[in-house]
Write a structure and sequence with these properties.
The complex is a heterodimer of chains A (208) and B (207). With 208 residues, chain A is of the alpha+beta class. Chain A has 4 helices and 12 strands; from the N terminus they run H-E-H-E-E-E-E-E-E-H-E-E-H-E-E-E. Chain B has helices spanning 2-18, 109-123, and strands at residues 26-37, 47-56, 59-71, 74-81, 86-92, 97-102, 126-134, 142-145, 148-153, 156-164, 167-178, 181-189, 194-200. Classes of the chains: A alpha+beta (208), B alpha+beta (207).
Chain lengths: 208, 207
């Protein structure tokens, strides 16, 4: 009897678990690639984000949240508002930091790795910012949503990131979730909310 | 002549390494009844999360330090940057450490070993039997075990001074201790330009 119940539970497990992930068919890939090409060019982006850092030895992820503003070609404001106040602005080849009122700036050249990771996250949030020369791309479906897995080819990035997972909204073609998986399999998931593409962004957002 | 020089050099080196650390104003040592010091991080059901600010070799970094007691004498500690990158993830045992992950830039054997030593001192529960004797009025007891000096204030651990070869190696200060847990911790390395400030994030901790 117990064995029967176990088999039944095993059979029913997929119905209770999250949306299943599968490889896209070649026709689905073509449609999705076309959608990406046709989707609106992101010149500005503002969004709220929630960040979850998962590690295999902790029961609940480390959570923080904040706001991101992007303006092409090279302006980025990244601020955490909870549970701490911390803001970074990338502008004119410099990083400006406001750590709870303590301000400082540094040349991007002094912190290339820091800049590389933050750029990677922000370009992922824009969606189409991947280059097939730099990444091996895998096309997937997660329920109704489209999903991309990017595997870095460059050694310089592979040292820090094992894969990037982008989940696109099934309502529009914008990215709503970014996951960065590290070589150790720890991962950080960013959920984007209240996305506004190509809206007006006040220049003062990039002043610090 | 050469042999004489070699022996002299060895003698100087050995004497130097045997030199013991002189704790300020201490004049001797007494034996006391055995007691436990540093029992802040012993509960294996808890996870402690501290907001961290690190100044190291002229660079600043902010993030979180996560501490978990895997067993009474085994702790796992991970330093994570604000952007979520794991800087260092290490398990510390009484006599060794095990590296789980380290960002490529800091994955140097000496650096990892030094940080594991700091983390071990920060979290390891010790049993002490020797206390220092002070010449003048003693405000607080200071216990000694191996190269660690544990000073107590109002029945809680306030400072750990860790020494090597007669010199202070690093200093850990526990402040604002409430319900047997320090809300603020300062770590100052004396050999390398490294300082770490930790502030308990109660919302993210599992207590």
């Amino acid at each position: 009897m117990r064995v029967k119940i176990s088999y039944m539970l095993l059979f029913m497990l997929p119905f209770f678990s999250d949306a299943q992930t599968r490889q896209m068919t070649s026709s689905e890939i073509s449609v999705f690639q076309q959608t990406l090409k046709e989707s609106v060019q992101v010149k500005t982006l503002s969004a709220d984000f929630v960040q979850y850092k998962h590690m295999n030895f902790i029961k609940q992820p480390i959570t923080s949240s904040g706001k991101i503003y992007l303006k092409q070609p090279d302006r980025l404001s990244w601020s955490y508002t909870a549970p701490f106040q911390y803001r970074m602005v990338f502008r004119d080849n410099k990083i400006f930091i406001d750590d709870q009122g303590k301000k400082k700036s540094m040349d991007i050249g002094n912190s290339k790795q820091f800049e590389k990771i933050s750029r990677l996250v922000s370009s992922s949030m824009r969606g189409g910012g991947y280059d097939e020369k730099e990444f091996t791309v895998s096309y997937l479906k997660k329920g109704d949503a489209n999903m991309l897995k990017l595997f870095p080819k460059l050694q310089d990035i592979k040292k820090y990131i094992k894969e990037i997972v982008l989940v696109f909204s099934d309502k529009d073609t914008q990215v709503e979730e970014v996951t960065l998986v590290e070589p150790s399999n720890d991962y950080t998931r960013f959920i984007l909310k209240n996305r506004k593409v190509n809206g007006q962004i006040n220049e003062s957002v990039f002043n610090l | 002549m050469n042999r004489y020089l070699i022996f002299s050099l060895l003698a100087v080196l050995l004497c130097g390494s045997c030199r013991s650390y002189q704790y300020p104003n201490a004049v001797g040592m007494r034996t006391s009844h055995q007691q436990e010091v540093n029992n802040y991080y012993t509960d294996t059901t808890h996870t402690w999360v501290y907001r961290s600010q690190i100044q190291a070799f002229g660079k600043d970094m902010t993030g979180h330090l996560i501490i978990r007691a895997m067993a009474p004498n085994t702790h796992r500690l991970a330093l994570v940057s604000d952007l979520g990158q794991t800087i260092l993830d290490v398990s510390v045992f009484p006599d060794r450490h095990e590296l789980h992950a380290a960002m490529a830039d800091i994955n140097k054997k000496i650096l990892v070993k030094e940080l594991a030593w700091v983390f071990r001192s920060l979290t390891e529960r010790r049993y002490v039997q020797n206390a220092l004797i002070f010449m003048d009025k003693q405000h607080y007891p200071v216990y000694v075990v191996d190269d660690h000096f544990y000073s107590m204030e109002e029945r809680h651990l306030a400072d750990i001074v860790v020494t090597k070869n007669g010199k202070e190696r690093f200093h850990v200060s526990f402040d604002d201790v409430q319900r047997k847990l320090p809300k603020n911790i300062t770590i100052q390395h004396k050999k390398y330009p490294v300082a770490i400030q930790l502030k308990l994030d109660e919302k993210q901790s599992v207590l």
